[in-house]
Specification:
324 residues, 23% strand, TRM61_C, seven-stranded mixed beta sheet, Vcp-like ATPase, Chain A, domain 2, four-stranded antiparallel beta sheet, 10 helices, alpha/beta, binds S-adenosylmethionine
Length: 324
């Protein structure tokens, strides 16, 4: 497959290739080349035949003289323009997941849910032909869209990919032997519901990475990882990418950016029977909507100065700051 993908990405444009067309205003359209077909806009059209056989990265003019750049889309371009069932993991987060999730060639990776298949494609590229990506998706319609998207991108069904329609918790134990999965990647509403099944499937030292959209999900999954008892202390972060405008002397960040996509959290599977080492810091109280008591500053991880320290500070201020 790796060789086939390399072949797909190289050489002059062929029938069946996806080509990204960019007009002088930067507007992009993606077409799939077919003999005899035309790509029309409200100002002129392009003949596919004029592109077939042309080198990747060519320019051509349409029937009214508008110039277009024609280039093969990258995976990052493709996932942003392909048909969607569910919301996709953006390329900036997929890059983080592959690196921080330590997805390596030959790895056995479990993924849920599949959604539109955007993240699956990055995982497949990272594990390569010798690896396995076992993806689980509750919804048949989403699984079908994802498989069609991946097939269109890789040119055929990727040999490392298996998609199972079903709930991860119910389907995973039947799909893998306990302790045989290297990495688990969860992008779903309630990853905390899957921790027992994931913990059983992972090899000792295996890694779980979850992508969640909200802070409340992040908090809940972090607490569930701790409560499970078989995982290391979780690590959470988010990434923000700000594009830059590059024009003459106007070199500056763009005015608009994606301020938020999601949070990532990782943890490692401990060996069977091993409990996590004691944390040095006292863990904060977990979120309990029904709890009657008030939240305290300590619950939220704030450092609260001792009464003695506050008294000392108050004394040192005396009558308060004096104006010069
Ligand atoms: C946001 S989408 C995933 C998008 C995907 N990562 C992508 O990049 O295209 C979340 C998916 O998880 C599926 N899902 C939620 N809980 C699940 C579970 N327990 N087992 C399997 N699939 C689940 C949903 O049906 C939905 O399609």
């Amino acid at each position: 497959m790796t060789a086939i993908e390399a072949d797909l990405r190289r050489g002059n444009f062929r029938i069946g290739d996806r080509v990204q067309l960019t007009d002088p205003k930067g507007r992009m359209h993606t077409i799939t080349l077919e003999a005899g077909k035309e790509f029309h806009t409200h100002r002129g059209f392009i003949r596919h035949d004029d592109l077939i056989g042309a080198p990747d990265g060519s320019t051509l003019t349409n029937t009214v003289g508008i110039e277009y750049l024609a280039i093969r889309p990258l995976l990052a371009d493709y996932v942003m323009s392909m048909p969607r069932g569910a919301a996709v993991v953006y390329p900036k987060d997929a890059g983080q997941i592959v690196m921080m999730g330590d997805i390596f060639p030959g790895a056995v990776v479990v993924e849920a849910g599949v959604g539109s298949g955007a993240l699956s494609m990055s995982l497949l590229r990272a594990v390569g032909e010798s690896g396995r990506v076992l993806s689980f998706e509750r919804r048949t319609d989403f699984a079908t869209i994802a498989q069609a998207n991946a097939r269109a991108f890789f040119g055929s069904d990727h040999p490392a990919w298996t998609v199972t329609v079903g709930d991860l918790v119910e389907s995973l134990p039947a799909a893998v032997e306990p302790g045989t999965v290297d990495r688990v990647v969860l992008d779903m509403l309630a990853p905390w519901e899957c921790l027992d099944a994931v913990g059983d499937a992972l090899i000792p030292g295996g890694l779980l990475i979850c992508y969640v959209a909200t802070a409340t999900q992040l908090s809940r999954v972090a607490e569930a990882m701790r409560d499970h008892g078989g995982f290391t202390e979780p690590h959470a972060w988010e990434s923000m990418v700000r594009d830059w405008h590059l024009e003459g002397l106007a070199v500056r960040p763009v005015h608009r950016m994606h301020g938020h996509t999601g949070f990532l959290i990782t943890t490692r599977r401990l060996a069977p029977g091993v409990t996590p080492p004691l944390r040095k810091r006292r863990p904060g109280r977990g979120y309990d909507a029904d709890a009657a008591e008030e939240w305290t500053a300590e619950d939220l991880g704030e450092r609260v100065p001792s009464d003695k320290r506050v008294r000392r500070t108050a004394r040192s201020i005396g009558d308060g700051p004096r104006l010069p």
